[in-house]
Task: structure prediction
Amino acid sequence: MAGVFEGVEVEARGLGVRGGHGWVYRHVSLHAAPGTLTVVTGEAGSGRTSLLLTLAGRMKPAEGTLTVGGLATPRRIRQIAALGLFTEVNPFDDALSVREHLQERLRPHGFLWRRRHPDAARSALAHAGLDPDALPHGDRTLTRELTRDQAVRLGVALALLDQPGLLLVDDADTGIPAGRRHEMWDILRGLADQGLTVVAACTDAEEATGVATTLLPLPVPRSPRLPRRPSSETTRGTTPGRRAPMRPRKESGDERPPPRPARTAQVHALAAHQGRAGRRDHAAPAVRRALPLVVLGSPGEPEPRTGGPRRGGPSRHRSRRRGRPAEHGGRGP
Result:
């Protein structure tokens, strides 16, 4: 890394990403030239992180157009864009040290590349403003021992090892004390001054106003309110699209129970049967005729056909359990 980066041009028009609960963000347009710092600001739920992931080729927009360095497909955009620390996307391994994270990031480049660039990790840490000597255990410090601003700087250093043309940093001010936020913005501004295209997201852009090339505020998208479902009382006896008139409220003394529905002949017969069943243990003959009960082997059962076993007859397995085997279709003892 020679210290001068080759930034790329970013052109987005009418971008929008739709999720399961509606639009995450919509109607976003921006232009970022090489060597500029674009700051995306917005509250939680405004889609800041999703917008950065879209610019990096990690999310596919539902509407709009996007070109990064003249490339339009997400697969090719991912080759020239690098992510800083995204807590929900590429978190650190708490069991690894700073040195181990740097070695893991350099491993995909191959052994020959590491030999040609022996100081690549040291140069990346310097551009990110992270001094290993200032850490508790040097570069052997575990990532869980880093402060928030040190973790963000390490994420920037790891992204610079990929030699990107576009750097994206999420939550650049989250969890960082107010006295150190301006240092983080100065670091990102310094990377942009060396030719890199930087897009960072934050919640408060007050301290980034003086260093940002472009400020892009994102409003929180409002999902359309669904109409309330009318109740059965308001829709009973009305035509579709018209609401039933409100009934006048009665006085407490005039309240009467609603009239009971008229009984049909079947309801009367059932009630009479239930009353007789409470006095006697057997069912009425009318109920027997209405609900016939078919029992296998009863006198009303048709005779089995000759030449074949009768369905439902005793099986050989059941006869053996009783100790008296019988052939299928035969009559038991």
In short: Residues 32-49+80-216 form a domain with the Rossmann fold fold (CATH 3.40.50.300). The first strand starts at residue 10 and ends at 19.
